């Protein structure tokens, strides 16, 4: 068995598709009307479909998981994020951990937590 996709719930699929393309270069692979698969296996699902399926409310900014991306030029990424999405809500602005990794944490437009960090040396 293998993990195939990660699904996140969004209010506006087109807006989210643009967000993930603008910042991370993800492109649409398949659009099933309310379910959209992007490159790298990220699935966007319309909040109405998710709520109907689960019979529960969606809780934005629940901080129980995050999408993690790596970026060598994180300073340029942070500038691009600020320029393209100036209303971004940050959990932590660009910082450096004790072990030397630079990271930034923020929410996407729907309250899904994202972390971008420099690659870890192995």
Automatic annotation (TrEMBL):
Looking up InterPro entries in the UniProt record yields:
Glyas_Bleomycin-R_OHBP_Dase, Glyoxalase-like_dom, VOC_core
Highest rank taxon of the organism: Bacteria
Q: Where is the VOC domain?
A: 2-119
Quote the protein name from its UniProt record: Glyoxalase
Q: Which organism is it from?
A: Claveliimonas bilis
């Amino acid at each position: 068995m293998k993990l195939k996709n990660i699904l996140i719930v969004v209010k506006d699929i087109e807006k989210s598709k643009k967000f993930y393309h603008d910042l991370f270069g993800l492109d649409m692979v398949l659009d099933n009307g309310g379910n959209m698969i992007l490159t790298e296996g990220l699935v966007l699902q319309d909040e109405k479909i998710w709520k109907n399926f689960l019979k529960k409310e969606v809780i934005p900014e629940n901080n129980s998981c995050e999408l993690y991306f790596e970026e060598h030029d994180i300073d340029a990424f942070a500038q691009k994020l600020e320029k393209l999405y100036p209303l971004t809500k940050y959990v932590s602005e660009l910082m450096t951990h004790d072990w030397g990794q630079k990271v930034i944490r923020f929410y996407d437009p729907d309250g899904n937590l994202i972390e971008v960090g420099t690659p870890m040396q192995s």
